[in-house]
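Quick question about two entries, pasted in order.
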Amino acid sequence: MGWTGKLAGLVVLAAALAAWRPAAAAPAVPPDSLCAAQTAENERNYGIPARLLDSISVVESGRYDRQRKETLAWPWTVTAQGEGKYFPSKHEAIAEVKRLRTKGVKNIDVGCMQVNLMYHPEAFASLDDAFDPATNVAYAARFLKGLFGATGHWVTAASYYHSQTPSLASAYRDRLMKVWNGAATATREAAATFTPVKPGPAGRPVPSTGRVDEMRAKWRAQQAENAGEAKAIAAAYRQARLAEYQLRRARMIQLRRERGLPLDGY
């Protein structure tokens, strides 16, 4: 190739390099939207009423966002000893749980849904999983589904998500219903201003009957698997609470015996 040819090649290469742009990375989801994205997905996956799981997350780990002027669930929330803390990163939230455990604290709520690590000891394989929004919310969704299976009533199930002690469940239900009713109002207002786009003349391809049947069968199998897992989670939770009650009762009986007090009613 002569000099002229080489020069022409370099010009073409330079033009190509000038026009080339690296592919833009997918925009990262901001932390204050991570929980909401997962609650919406799991509401669909587990047949939970719209915005109910999201409302629970807001009650559990919500903090007020001044810019957006609304309360949003925060994925790196840690609650222990009556105090909730919001951390700027997963790493710092994990460090806080480790610090608390070093001090002997076991009753710790974590993540979007504030899953309790003492009552749900088998919920997560690691603290990294515990603070992963997808893993944290999916576990909470299965637990809520299990409570619904036991009660047959979504609001009661949501109240029991916090506690099965009647007074605590009632107070929690009142807080939750305010958030859920507010979310439902916002959804209706958004729907009222939405203008649907008409489909094009070509439309979308319709799956064959066989394919539809296959999809339905897979969906039913997944729902059955989810329901079984949800029941197991709810049963394990109830067992943990029962064990805690029995231990507390045994300690109370022992204390009354030591003090020579009557055991009537115990």
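Here is the second entry:
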Amino acid sequence: MEKNSIKNWAEDDRPREKLTQKGVDALSNSELLAILINNGSREKSAVDLAKELLQAVDNDLQKLGNLSVKEFLSLNIKGLGPAKAVTIAAALELGIRRNLTEKKITKVIRSSDVAGYLKAKLQYRQNEVFVVVYLNNANKILHHEIISEGGITGTVADPRLILRKALEHRATALILSHNHPSGNLKPSRQDELLTHKIKEAASYLDIKVLDHVIISNEGYYSFADEGLL
């Protein structure tokens, strides 16, 4: 235990001291994770555990961010129990929310405006989620809401619910969006049919469907940009 204790390292090599002295940019991913892990096991230091965790997700922080606590524990890394799993999950979620805040928009000019915001919100979700953004005549965002959540391969959105909420928020335009956890950005036939069904229903209420944006960790796909609306 003593041999592996970070307390016995040179001060410059200890993650907490290194961060204090040199700033966060000076630390590697494993050192940053080690600070969250806090202490090691009898056989390994916190940094060793962090390196083992990163290796288990192919050194991909996005994969790590996608893990639920249950999936985290299923990696069976000795020394990383429920408390540490929860701490790491919470820290990664804060990073996602910070990114979401930075990308927050109030007005939509082009599809990329809303795509960046929705990508920050949806790209790490492991289940499919359908979101609607409600706008006024000036394309200012009045409200956005998750309408439905599904499984890994799909979700169903009810046009009646979407339009009811549009009337509640006095919206004159909508942007539809959902994520593809698989990473594939190509719209399915069901995606196309649902989009046109909502667009047709909305037209009777003088509400425009401006776009349908598909989000994944690979980027985004815009129905409007591709001429599908």
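Reply: The radius of gyration is 22 Å. The beta strands are 129-135, 141-149, 173-179, 208-216, 219-222. Hope that helps.
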